[in-house]
């Protein structure tokens, strides 16, 4: 079945490959630009930000890491937890390979343009191989190559370069349809295992999809083709999983000492496949309107077929339907999927069915409506929470639709000329329909400079051993995705930095570090070798350090930076004498607030409007220092539907005394939606208050709310606060 149609043609095998290569060059140029292939061109990645910037930063930090084990570990990004080059979607397969040559690579080196080009090239190659199995005419194969390399899903998925390896799916289809009588079955299984390991070293989602073939192919060979012993099926499946775990262990995406939180609780069903996905171009079609979806998260289910394929689809379906005529036997033998051997398709069709259901999820949606929800077992939900962008898995059925349409049209009894003309007209319609999707990217070229004052920040970074933001691990500090600016400067200066974005992280370790950093800052214990950076909403954590003179503070680009007075004063800093008039006014305003000490005040205990549970609350954190109490969470009066105008206080009480301190209101619209109330957006609170006026001792912590009518409500929170004793941090995650 690997032989090509022997009929003479102007396009032989070599010509087909050359023509397809030229098509790939043209499509890549139209879609991304050939400038992306220049290794030192990082501008297109960093100016696009979002995922592209993350992928480049993961590689850039990884490149400068010393070799160690596991091979893919990164220590200076997402510091001090670190991460793995696989969790930044930086394509471990390429990252590890190119790191071998880091000593000769330029500083700004990227391989993502080459990767995208390689994905298009391999898509074309395996399309040729698959279509040749069905002995299609080279002209039709060439048209199929253009359809497949310019298909909307592949072009759209450029937003995640690692996920553009759709050739793995096509290659798996090629192995599935290969004739085990002419190709050694064990060779087929070996190649399929190689595809699985390649997928594992590229992206887990691709591995998950390819894994289905590592079950379907041996199942077909053992139980349908009967060219493999049945026990080999079970051994091969076990070997595939074992080999994957070993591969991920080498890279570091799986460890046995600690585990990243692979699952995101409640996420399965969020990124689901909408039932309108095959014809919904979400605004990328020239001919069809955008259709509504349940939520923006369903962008992961972009599966638009294109007008050309949709034109051919009903023709293919009509031709696939068996027609009972006196002369129907012979044509049926040539019909795709309608052969005497069609039972051998059952493993593949079963895989398609399972993966389609997994993609749609138990929350079935059509347009902007949820049609119904189906209860599912916890184990299935857990798997879905690991592969939460489940709609991506529909790529297998999607590609099967494309190939079925093309092969079926090619197998009609029409003359070659008519088949070629019909397919060419459909291709023209397809390219016209998707022209915006193909051309909408306008990528920049060259070196990269952040919107920040790179020179001054760089000089500051030079004088410290590490950079710590508060809050840590955040993607957005002052502006969306601004972590990329600072991470880029940090990687240029080879400094560890505690912000970033990773696909998976250890949430327990993150919380532990965040609590430790918060306590250290609120105690005024700044590391002399660390540059601290924060923004206005979080300056309260530096109040004690400022008030005791333990740190110096200044501002640059609307960010505030702090460093310990115990260390050497930076040679380059925007201190009071060097600040612009605007920055000096901003700093003076902030310093007035930071030097104002918020303290607990003794008051006469009000008369409370108490019920058994008058306040619904959640204390996220209560940091009990020797001089202060820092806390945050949310709270609202149980009986209220709207808390606009309510004030929240932190209260400390003993048998004889009652102290309160006002808390700052933090907007929490999620509380409103969770409790299905009219408006509880003002439920969030945070407070940093000092014990200046409180005698040493033990006090009961409580929350007090004064509503807009002037009535007081009080709720103990079952925490004992120590005043005038050794510091103690209380992780307060309880109601």
Question: How would you describe this protein?
Answer:
The protein has 735 residues and is an alpha+beta fold. The protein is 41% helix and 14% strand. It contains 24 helices and 18 strands. It has a five-stranded antiparallel beta sheet, with no helix packed on it. Helix 9 (185-200) packs antiparallel against helix 10 (204-223) and helix 10 runs antiparallel to helix 11 (230-251). The longest helix has 22 residues, at 112-133. The N and C termini lie far apart (67 Å). The relative contact order is 0.08.
Show the helix and strand layout:
Layout: H1 13-31, H2 43-48, H3 50-63, E1 73-74, E2 83-84, H4 92-99, H5 112-133, H6 138-149, H7 152-156, H8 167-177, H9 185-200, H10 204-223, H11 230-251, H12 307-320, H13 329-334, H14 346-360, E3 363-366, E4 369-373, H15 378-386, H16 395-410, H17 416-433, H18 435-439, H19 454-462, E5 466-470, H20 483-493, H21 507-522, E6 530-534, H22 543-547, E7 551-556, E8 559-564, H23 581-594, E9 601-602, E10 615-624, E11 628-637, E12 647-653, E13 658-662, E14 664-666, H24 669-675, E15 684-690, E16 697-706, E17 712-723, E18 728-730
Parallel strand pairs: 5-6
Antiparallel strand pairs: 1-2, 3-4, 6-8, 7-8, 9-13, 10-11, 10-18, 11-15, 12-13, 12-16, 14-15, 16-17
Helix pairs in contact: 1-5, 1-6, 3-20, 5-6, 5-8, 6-16, 6-17, 8-9, 8-10, 9-10, 9-11, 10-11, 10-14, 12-16, 12-17
